[in-house]
Amino acid sequence: MKSSEVQGEQMERSSGKENRLKRDEEEFLRQKKFNQFDVIENDDRLVLHFDEDHRAGEEDFRTKKIMEEWRILKKGLPPTIFVRAYKGHYDFLRAAIIGGTSMPYCHGLFFFDIKFPASYPNEPPIVTYHSCGFRLHHNLELDGKVCLSLLNTSKKESEKEWNKDLSKSNVLEVLLSIQERILNSRPYFDMPNKQTLPLPSWLYNKEEKSKAYNEGIFALNCQTMVKIMHKPPKDFEFFVGQFFRDRVRAEAILRACPGDLYPKFYQAFRKDESLWSVLENFQSPALLELGKGSKAKKAKKNQDVEGSKSRKNQDVKGLKVKKNPEVKGLKVKKNPDVKESKMKKNQQEKDRKVKKTTLHYGNVKIILM
């Protein structure tokens, strides 16, 4: 009976393990196919801040134009841009752009929310950037505003403006313009007042200034990466995880990022087993020192705890040692008095018993005992 129960439990465990592995494999295969463009189920909370009185689908013409945008995106997206559309909210898109291979936007992920207004296609879509609290470019403001001529949010003679004809202006072109005109390798030259930048006075050469500016922007890019790793945008969680788990990319980020940002990447990477293995295998002196420092700090903490316990025990022991002599001395001082008192009392008792009383009757002396 017992052996059959054991066998049954083992079979249940093995079948449960197989089911879990199967589910994990199916989930991995499903998510591994993270298409360039996909339409997924709508989450009202996702687009709450974009809600308007006008709803997508109320005008056949507008809806038709949005569907045309979807087809253009599905066919024309490059490998570095990913877009998600939503069932029930046709007027909302979320896009991710991968930074280029050169500084300062290399290895970064940049997310944008796209809303088709009621006046679309006569007016361009509204694009909002996920800044994570860092301004990485003059045309990417902290509140998410994207300044681009194609969006009618910036005016440059060399750039064209929005055209309601989708063959001339569309969301794909907007995303490609952001990638080309904003997330490029020379953001310094997009600044309107280059002379007012907080750079050292000895940097007279424009290329040197551009290089110094790129280093500062890349530091902000690294901080943005950490924020995105901690809290990926909705519906891009798996994409973000897989992106930063790439060993080559992770090592490249660690090589390039400023030393003072190592602790942030260290904390972000160690929460993920795949990324932690990258840290263990990445022989960076700064990271090794950080790891040693962490271990040393922990060892010091243990030593402090041990020392505190030892001092406490010594104090308690010393207190007992100090206390006992006083008690002992008190007893020594107290005992002679007690003994003397007892002896005196005993003597009085004895004297009372043996006390002699003498009576005189004339010439006769009588002694009473």
Automatic annotation (TrEMBL):
Domain UBC core: 61-226
Record keywords: Transferase, Ubl conjugation pathway
GO molecular function, a single term: ubiquitin conjugating enzyme activity
InterPro entries hit by this protein: UBC (IPR000608), UBQ-conjugating_enzyme/RWD (IPR016135)
Pfam families: UQ_con (PF00179)
Basic and acidic residues bias: start-end ranges: 10-24, 301-352
Top-level taxon of origin: Eukaryota
Region (Disordered): 1-24, 293-356
Name of this protein: UBC core domain-containing protein
Species annotation: Papaver nudicaule (Iceland poppy)
